[in-house]
Design goal:
With 159 residues, this protein is mostly helical. It has two domains: 74 residues; 40 residues, no CATH class. Helix content is 58%, strand content 0%. It has nine helices and no strands. It is flat. The model has no long low-confidence stretch (mean pLDDT 84).
Length: 159
Amino acid sequence: MLTLKESTLVLAKIRVHHGNAAITDLEARTFHEELRADMTLGEALEAVKRFYADNDSGRWCGSGDVNAIVRRMRNESKPSEAQIGRECERLGLVEDQAWLYRRQRMLGNGPDQAQQQALTMRNPFELPAAQPKSRSTASRFAGASRPGMASLGSMLGGA
């Protein structure tokens, strides 16, 4: 997640293209709030660079532009389903392991990290085995002999 200082740096890079105007506190905070929460500084700076490399209209780069470019960059870096299938075959992953591997790759993890997690994680949709409950009734009535506990006979008046 970008800090306020980092997002202000991104805004300053945008301002360089338009006369380097001073940035107010409100502008910096608003820009920071509008950026994706999971964006890194490197991604944001690269997005601004790509925006102005293709910009021939003179339009300013906004937070929405940065968010959209980062989303495109991430989608372009994701492997295709066919590529993930080939990776699973090469690694010998089947069923749950292949599903976990595919999930990790689509989340943006690299092949090595995805393989490690697929081989060590348990399936999140798999329920743990039920533990049998104790059926002993002796422990329920064992507490009657504790100090301060009256017997049933004394409570009923010796009946």
